[in-house]
Design goal:
Strand order of the largest sheet: 1-2-3-4-5-6
Low-confidence stretches: 223-227, 301-305
Helix content: 55-70%
Distance between the termini: 67 Å
Number of helices: 18
Shape: elongated
Radius of gyration: 43 Å
Largest sheet: 6 strands, antiparallel
Length: 635
Amino acid sequence: MFRIKKLHILIIKQFALLFVGAFFICLFVLMMQFVWQYIDDLIGKGLTLDILAQLFWYMALMMVPQALPLAILLSSLIAFGNLGETSELTAIKAAGVSLMQTLRPLIFIVILITCGSFYFQNNIGPYSNKKVGQLMISMKQKSPELEIPEGIFYDGIPQCNIYVQKKDLKTGMLYGVMIYKMTDSYEDAAIILADSGMLQSTAEKKHLLLSLYSGEWFENMRSSDFGGSAYIPYRRETFWSKKILLDFDGDFNLADANVFGQNAKAKSLNQIKEDIDSLNYTYDSIGHAYYADAKRFAFEVGNIGKADSLRAINDIKTKAYNFDTIYARQSIDKRRQAVNGALARVNQQTTDLDFKSMLTSDGDRYLRLHKIEAINKFVLAFSCIIFFFIGAPLGAIIRKGGLGVPIIVSVIVFIIFFILDNMGYRMARGGMWAIWFGKGLATAVLAPTAVFITYKANNDSAVFNLDAYTELCMKILGLRRKRSITRKEVIINDPEYARDKAELERLSQEVTEYSHEHNLKSPPNIIKVFFKYQPDHEIERISQELESVIEDLSNTKDRMVLSLLNHYPIVAEKAHTRPFERRWLNTLMALILPLGIFFYIRMWSFRLRLLKDLRVIKQTNQKMTERIEEIISQQ
């Protein structure tokens, strides 16, 4: 028990240090991504350090639930990759401790982190989201910091465009000033030219005082004063010194937090539940009112009463009431009046229905957003467990530590999760998918993946063995490796040349007999292949005996013998007889016509390849026996 306890302490230390570092790195990356998204709203606003500190603090709190799963994935991958790379994991398994026993303390820790993530989202996250949104709206509404550049028009001051040719940074004087001051439209613009000027902010930071020197003022007179005349006079003023007061709010005013009343992300689970009940009650009442209006309109078109409407409907059903006949009897004026009245009522009802549809659509959207956020609190917390059971087994399988392969794998897994979750969120928000399906899509895909990877890692399966997959692909495509036999540095036993020569001569005779007996050029019998299969062990025996001779001759020092050994093909022993080992699979492939044709042609190609291999074996045997005779004669 003490040994296991020390092992758990070792695993926890490995994971905890990496988790803390990975958490802060992931949090920083997510925060920078958020800042980069809203960089235009932050630059040039002259925000003080305390405002920026509040923004980054609440932003960090808001990003914690998103950083936790990624940190768990990355830290578990690196931790178990390091253990596998240093062979510590191999030693642990050799001591009789399975992977699941090694993971037990970390599973308990990850469950605690999952519970903490849910608590954070339900209690601290809503407040953080509200504060970040409040600060961002306030920053968007704040006027930009006054920093007039040289040589370009500056539009940071409301209703003004200022051009400065040159600026003295020490005194603050502006030279070559041109100002376009708009009021209601471009036609009412005032153009101000001045040799120099100075711009200062008032004490309360609500206005700007513009002092201009040696200039002229051109301004159109308002067209309303002259009754809309085409000729609008303008006013020209030459001044030596002039002061202009401009509206400019340079203070940071915090927006009202009540504007986030409909933001589901700024609410806890209990608040979301209460708001869903309130929204359902409100929009159900609206729906009943709309339904009552629709019923009232159906029976009260114009001045027709309910009884008359029902009578007219019954007459239509019995074909005793013909609209066309009644319409044709009316005068042209009454026809036009009837058509215009009908169009007016239809347009009125269309407008009314569009307005009602907009209200009900907004209600459905608010309800979906609240339900999505309620499910998201559980999904994001549960993703911590999923990412752990992906990261830890993958690290044990890959056995690569450091920041190379683990980061690549972590990014790939997180991108897959993000794409699936974001796609499900958008489809659920738009109402195209059910909410439970949209928010559960990422979990439904990654949870079975985590179970599969954990099972394979616990059973030491070579799920990521590239050679195994390469071998499988070559087998499916009918490819094969070339034989590669080289001279051995140390030879214990020399080949028995005489016995090997006799074996090769006998195998050549058997290969000839087999080729004549089976007629490998002809297409295979479909009935025997798919329904009445009979095993062919002759090629298996020939191949095994040939490999035994090749193994013995590989101990030779003769270069020519080694070269001839590499001419022997690696024979496919069963591919020319049937597609699969199991009879029911062969029968199934015969019933599925396209696949049956493919496997039939594939097996025929293997028969032709076997015929070619047998010829190569026979020719190589002849050359090999001649060379062995020379070696025996030289001894």
